[in-house]
Amino acid sequence: MSIIFCQWNSIIEHSIINAFYKLKYDVILFNYPFKNKDLDTDYIKVFSDSLMKTSNVDFVFSVNYIPIISKVCNIARIHYISWTVDSPSLTLYSKSMCSPYSHAFLFDYELYLKFKNYFPANVHYLPLAGDTDFYDSISISTEDHALYDCDISFVGSFHTKYCSYYDIAFSNLNDYYKGYINALIHTQLNIYGYYLIEDSLPEELANSIMSSTGLTTLPDYIQDIPGFVANHIIGFKCNQQDRIKTLEYISNYYNINLYTTEDTSMLPKVNNCGIADSSNDMPKVFKCSKINLNMSARTIKSGIPQRIFDIMAAGGFVLSNYQSEIPEYFTPDEDIVLYDSLQDLKTKIHYYLSHEQERNRIARNGYNKVKQFHTYHVKIKELLSTITK
User: Fold this and answer.
1) Which of 109, 128, 307 minimizes the C-alpha distance to 193?
2) pTM of the entire predicted model
3) What is the rounded CA–CA span in Å between residue 251 and residue 257?
4) Three-state secondary-structure class, residue 94
5) Lowest mean pLDDT among 54-58, 94-98, 171-175, 197-201
6) Dihedral angle at the C-alpha atoms of 59, 61, 66, 67, nearest 10 degrees?
7) DSSP string, 285-301
8) For residue 299, how far is the Cα from the chain centroid?
């Protein structure tokens, strides 16, 4: 059995490739860079040549759905499987998904239900995974403890680079719409486990925001302007404000290490430790932090983000915002601890910093749950069994 794995430097590609190796697949790596996910003549030519030169390919695989790969596979009549790890993911709207050879797996059940309506034969649900083998291979030295030991850490960005279209649109809105958007984001920031912005955005306002940015939807994409505006414009701004607000609040009471490349001048009490390399620094941060904070992107409507699986696979203690799918796979206060308000977050930080034995027990339970049920080996087997049914 052989597959072509189309790479684009996602941090989980190596873990998935190893899972295919464990399942006795011959993995052929294709890493030619694409300039455009929808149409790139150079990519089409090189990828098509690779397909023709490779015999007995069972399917093509990529992390996230890439329309240009789907289009080539449709012509070649080779099955294309993707596993989407990002939310939002604009390419899921591409009508190329209609191909009988395309299979897209989504980790967020609410997102799955939405796109299942558009592409009922092509969209599947599959939660993400953790690579316990990789994290087990990372040892912690005395020097590492000196560098990474801390009470609380967060690894991630504010999504500021994605907020430019929001800033343009907001400056062009009338006072009524500005007040409506401000109230919408303020309300969302106080609700965990439900993304209300997409359901609460009037179509007229969505069209106005879209028009003011100068953006246009692609002709071969499903036209869902309210959904695009809610998730790709307002959603990123909500993510930014949520993370800044949470870090500002917590830093007034506790020391917190933030690993990011972003400007944090608005957070003078937060320790900006710079970037954490995913293959070296990040695992050590997860292992050495007493509390690993997870703030799910608000555009992840119900699913469990990759960060939670990574922290658990490293044996770290996770304190996360509530997501509706978490209790379906992990037991709160046994495998993971959840908060539903900033005051609740503060209370739980205080409790678990002073209860080391209980904190370590929960971290150990989370690790064991991932190792038994949520490794890439387990999930890829589930993915393949879905396709072959």
Assistant:
1) 109
2) 0.96
3) 9
4) strand
5) 54-58
6) 0
7) HHHHEEEEEE---TT--
8) 9
Q: What is the rounded end-to-end Cα distance, in angstroms, of the chain? A: 17
| Kind and range of the H or E run holding 328 | helix 326-329
Distance CA 374, CA 19 (A): 12
Please say if the pLDDT value at position 351 is more than 70: yes
Residues 254-266 pLDDT 10s: 999 999 999 999 9
Nearest to 319 by CA among 292, 341, 344: 292
What order of strands is seen across the sheet that includes strand 289-294? 271-272, 256-259, 150-155, 289-294, 318-321, 337-339
User: What is the DSSP code (8-state) at residue 102?
Assistant: E
Using the CB atoms, write b or e for 166-188: b if 16+ within 10 Å. beebbeebeeebeebbeebbeeb
Largest CA distance in the chain: 62
Q: Residues 112, 92: contact at Cβ < 8 Å? A: no
Q: Report the alpha-carbon distance of residue 218 to residue 70 in Å, rounded.
A: 17
> What digits encode the pLDDT tens for the residues 104-156?
999 999 999 999 999 999 999 999 999 999 999 999 999 999 999 999 999 99
Using CA atoms, how far apart are residues 108 and 115, in angstroms rounded to an integer? 11
**DSSP tag of 34:** P
Characterize the bridge pairing of strands 123-125 and 59-63.
Answer: unpaired
Domains of the chain by start residue, with CATH? 2-129+376-388 (3.40.50.2300), 133-373 (3.40.50.2000)
For tokens 């609410």, name the residue: 110
Whether residue 103 contacts residue 126, with contact meaning beta carbons closer than 8 Å, is answered with no
At 329, which amino acid appears? Y
Between CA 297 and CA 107 the distance in angstroms is 14
Whole-number Å distance between alpha carbons of 329 and 335: 9
Q: Report the alpha-carbon distance of residue 55 to residue 245 in Å, rounded.
A: 54
Helices (H), the chain: 13-22, 41-53, 67-76, 109-118, 132-136, 142-148, 164-171, 175-189, 203-213, 225-228, 235-251, 281-288, 306-313, 326-329, 342-353, 356-373, 376-388
